[in-house]
Amino acid sequence: MSGWLITGADGMLGREVVAALRRTGAPVLPLARPDLDLTDAAAVHRTLRRARPAVVVNCAAWTDVDGAESAERAALAVNGDAVRTLARACAGVRSRMLHLSTDYVFAGDADTPYPEDAPAAPRSAYGRGKLAGERAVLEELPRLGTVVRTAWLYAGHGRNFVTTMAERAAAGAEVRVVDDQYGQPTWARDVAGRLLALGGLPAERAAGVFHATAAGRTTWFGLAREVFRLTGADPALVRPISTAQLGRPAPRPAFGVLGHGRWAAAGLAPPRPWADGLAEALSATTRPCPPLPSPSPPDAPDAPDVSGFSTGTYDSKGVA
Q: Is residue 92 situated within a structural domain?
């Protein structure tokens, strides 16, 4: 048993994880949605039995937060039921599993960072589905499963909040952005590094829940202004609005700031400040991930079109 298997490998985070593993020379099998339908239990178990990876990183998810409000059963099938299927398949071949989750499992009404063991109280259909996935991993893989919560994720490539703001900045366009939601803008490449670090730990030290967000906090408005500043545009072009003015169907956490206590306990360095990651992501030396070749494993059926079944789905977040 060796190597890594990455689901959702064509999404924003999945691409960064695959690229990071290839830089180390580690064997990696990247699987995108057409390669493996995670809602097909037989296909999932067959793939795991044949690949027998040492570590599985589940980056696949329904990420359409607003769409989940009107299609909760479909979102739960991907974010909850399919995760349990994958966890059981991992248990069957003794593979470790690193599963990505979100700050949406919390109510978002705190005023201090949520520790890893804080009680979950999701307020959205998306959050309820992600919590079901977390519980599936921890129940099916109590010694081999790791839940990694992240939030406000962006990359230097693809369609996400930061690249959208950079486009608006380059155009000298005014933009209205929410200023009453607090969180931690987190570069996907930093999360990929965290996942590799966890995969390199003994299983007993990595089991449980970790928070892989950047340090510090800001609002979407504060993040947008920093993107404008770093790209040489006028931050005054960014105007604040409220969540109520944005008018999205799904409730957003007003406070999604996560604590990072487990990293020190595991002997790993804490995350760096969000502004440091953003500056590097926007720097001229940053290179985007290359196009992802994603070979299908033998006999793996094509997956149906499942809305949002990739971490690459773009959510406009706090932009009006």
A: yes
Backbone angles phi, psi at 309, to 5 degrees: -80, 55
Looking at the structure of the chain, the number of domains it has is: 1
Name the 3-class secondary structure at 165. helix
Answer whether residue 192 is part of any domain. yes
Question: 3-state class of 103 per DSSP?
Answer: helix
Enclosing domain of residue 138: 4-153+187-215+254-272
Mean pLDDT for the stretch of residues 46-61 = 98
Q: What CATH number is attached to the domain comprising 138? A: 3.40.50.720
CA–CA separation, 154 and 161 (whole Å): 7
Whether 104 is a known active-site residue: answer no
Dump pLDDT digits (tens) for 132-143: 999 999 999 999
Give the residue-averaged pLDDT of 196-210: 97
**Residue in 310, 303, 309 with CA at minimum distance from that of residue 44:** 303
- Quick check: is 283 in a domain? no
pTM of the model: 0.90
- The first and second tokens of residue 174, run together, are 């005014």
* Distance (Å, whole) CA 103 – CA 151: 6
> Which tokens is 72 given?
């909760």
Residue 311, amino acid: T
> Which member of 126, 154, 182, 314 is catalytic?
126
218: confidence class by pLDDT, cuts 50, 70, 90: very high
